[in-house]
Amino acid sequence: MATVEASAAMVEAIAGARRRDQLRFRSIFFATWLVLVGIIVGGLAAAGKVDLEFLGEHQAFVLGGIPVTILVAASSIVIAVAFAIIGALGRLSTNAVIYGLASFYVSLVRGTPLLVQILFVYLALPQIWIEFAKIPLIALGIFALAFNYGAYMTEIFRAGIQAIPRGQLEAAAAIGMTGRLTMRRIILPQAVRIVTPAIGNEFIAMIKDSALVSIIGVQELLWRAQRAGTPEFRLLEALLLAALVYWILTIVFSVLQDRLEKRMAESDRRL
Amino acid sequence: MSHRTPGLAKIGALALIAAFAAVACAGSSNDDLLAKVKAADKIVMSTDPEYPPQSSLAADGSYEGFDIDVGTEIAKRLGVEIAFETPSWEAITAGSWAGRWDFSVGSMTITTDREKVISFSSPYYYTPAQMAVLPDSGITSLDGLAGKVICVGEGTTYLQWLDGTLDFGTATPQTKPPEGATATTLKSDRNCAESWQAGRRDFDGWLSSVTTVQGAIDAGLPVMKLGDPVFSEPLAVAFDKGGADPASIVTEVNKLLDAMRSDGTLKALSEKWFGEDLTTKVGG
């Protein structure tokens, strides 16, 4: 009786202390960030490198690139996942031709710079067939990014698929499931859960790499920052604004990814 | 994995390659560009909106500038709508536009190199090329830049002049570049001036059009004109030789430009954007 209440009070005290410690840690963490950001902004302002009037005038135009950036990044990652699954299956194939094709894809695409690939898609495709020139630039950009990331994610998916215990494959075969059915119903659903954190990371990297499609004229965030800043000799301010936006987007999607991972891991956590 | 017919994959791959080969052999269509533009009731113009006063972005995201106005006027006189594309300058000067846009009113200089891939109209205006230095550099004449580094924009005639490869194909006298001077490039002419403003001293000279240099001086950048303009370049409307045949549209546009010259439209636009009439040829 008395001992139970005492233990209960002790548990409460310990939980409370732990909460306070966590709160203190978080507050100091945020304060550190604020100080660092303050130092950077203060330093730039002191050096006269931040023209607020220019930013005020052009921010609407530059920020208008955010939807384009997100669209490019999101579409590319979805298509990249498709490329990655096909590539992973190819890399796991026992057929020499398919294995050869998949390995060639991974090796070639990982072995050339992404910027070169984007320019190649822009310049070389119409040489093969003139009608390719009618493809909208944003679609070309998305394709180039997806094709590139698909090669890198192929290895992620291959590892995810191979992580499924052999016992499950054997059990599936024992009850008469075909290879394709096993892949579709047993392996891929579990592999998706394993690779989701990695895909989240790739998406966040993709948000930054989407800036490269500005080279072929897609009017996303970086393109707009350059066009707003260069004519008025204020490229630095414009690029600072763009960098800040990329950073904020990265933070937002990192938090979302964190939440998604926690949600997916719920079945693993104890009550 | 599952057992597959081994030949199926190979047949599929061969079919794909055959299809590609077939379409690759199909040559480009030989339509007439003017007919194509009239049929579509639209002409697409390329522009690089980093160059006020020739082309820049208004606050609402639309394009404005001397080149924009000239292009719009040409489209109006052709009786078609105008639309804009924004490829990089190097993509425009390289030709082989693959039909992505129909013409360029982008202050492109007529040079014999470019004429291999580009069909030019008659010049619609002329710009002197002006050398600039920092006021505290102590350089007072072109000779002072001998052996030094000069900054220019990528893909510009200013770069060609420094490399000694600039050729207008006319007898326009050109000053010689400073002895032993080398060029360095940044993406756009203005980036050179901004680099100086940021305190960098990677180069001693800056070569660009007189309007751009004056723009930098007016914006309060630490830039000083050095000597007289080193050459005056004829700027024309450009068409791709590698696509639909531009012969008839070039003739048509030349007629329109003559009309715009005689009724004073070109002069008025030049004075509106540059504050002076640059549309008549100066000097040799």
Characterise this structure.
The complex is a heterodimer of chains A (about 270) and B (about 280). By secondary structure, chain A is an all-alpha fold. Chain A folds into 2 domains: about 1-50; about 50-265, MetI-like (MetI-like fold), CATH 1.10.3720. Chain A is built from 10 helices and no strands. Chain A is flat. The model of chain A has no long low-confidence stretch (mean pLDDT about 90). Chain B folds into 2 domains: about 35-125 and about 235-275, Periplasmic binding protein-like II (D-Maltodextrin-Binding Protein, domain 2, 3-Layer(aba) Sandwich); about 125-230, Periplasmic binding protein-like II (D-Maltodextrin-Binding Protein, domain 2, 3-Layer(aba) Sandwich). Helix content of chain B is about 35%, strand content about 25%. Chain B is built from 9 helices and 12 strands. In chain B, strands 1, 5, 6, 7, 8, 9, 10, 11 and 12 form a 9-stranded mixed beta sheet that branches. Chain B is globular and about 65 Å long. The interface between A and B is large, with 42 and 42 residues.
Short description:
The complex is a heterodimer of chains A (271) and B (284). With 271 residues, chain A is an all-alpha fold. Chain A folds into two domains: 1-50; 52-265, MetI-like fold, CATH 1.10.3720.
Q: Helix/strand-derived class of chain B?
A: alpha/beta
Q: Report the major sheet of chain A.
A: none
- Number of H/I helices of chain A: 10
Kindly give the count of domains of chain A. 2
Helix content of chain A: over 70%
Determine and state the CATH class of the largest domain in chain A: Mainly Alpha
For CATH, the homologous superfamily of the largest domain in chain B is named as Periplasmic binding protein-like II
Number of DSSP strand runs of chain B: 12
Helix and strand sequence of chain A: HHHHHHHHHH
Beta-strand share of residues of chain A: under 5%
C-alpha Rg of chain B (nearest Å): 23 Å
Q: Output the CATH topology of the largest domain in chain A.
A: MetI-like fold
* Shape, principal axes of CA atoms of chain B: globular
Number of strands of chain A: 0
Low-pLDDT sequence parts of chain B:
22-28
Q: Report the principal-axis shape of chain A.
A: flat
